[in-house]
Amino acid sequence: MKEYKYEPLKQFFLITDKNKIKLTYEEIEEIINNELPSYAYKYSTFWSNGGQYHDYAWLDAGWRVKKVILSEHIIFEKVKDDKDYEQLSFIDDMKKTKKTKYHPFEKYLIESEERKIKLTYIEIEKIIKEKLPESSYKYKEWWANSRHNNGAIWLDNNYKVVNVELGRSVEFEKENKEKSFFEKLFDKFKGIWLKRK
Length: 197
What we know:
- The protein is an alpha+beta fold.
- The protein has two domains: 4-83; 90-196, no CATH class.
- It is built from ten helices and six strands, in the order αβαααββααβαααββα.
- The strands form two sheets. A three-stranded antiparallel β-sheet has the order 1-3-2. Strands 4-6-5 form a three-stranded antiparallel β-sheet.
- Strand 2 and strand 3 (73-78) form a beta hairpin.
- The two termini are 31 Å apart.
């Protein structure tokens, strides 16, 4: 779910000849000709490199966030080479996922045979053995069907979020689509990797 209001920000990064840029919140709002949401001022996760539905504005342009001073400014830097990207391949994602609190949730979805799954926040927190971040209680965007650090967990397992009751429950539904040979092979290796965990 791309928010195209951030497209001007992407274009800004594509045409600049600098390698590092410091932008105030006001400057960013001027570039996109729109207001940033309130949580952009409150939570640094809004500015994460792969983790949000709008981060394409800098990642797709070959930039990443280097530093966040909430409500003041953001420092962006140009990615020098492929190694600088945080989400380049599934192998990189697996290395990260292995260390994240969401790994048990991914395993839960892989092993589920249900087409529809409705889980309360408490149930999800029991699965991951940790509390979900505050932003997941306040903002539906946290549950966006976008391939980021969280969304990839359900999207890569053929589920999508169909309903969110903030602070209460999340409903996932398995998509009915025939997988290609490569997708099946991918799933096979992924399953082997998770069993070895």
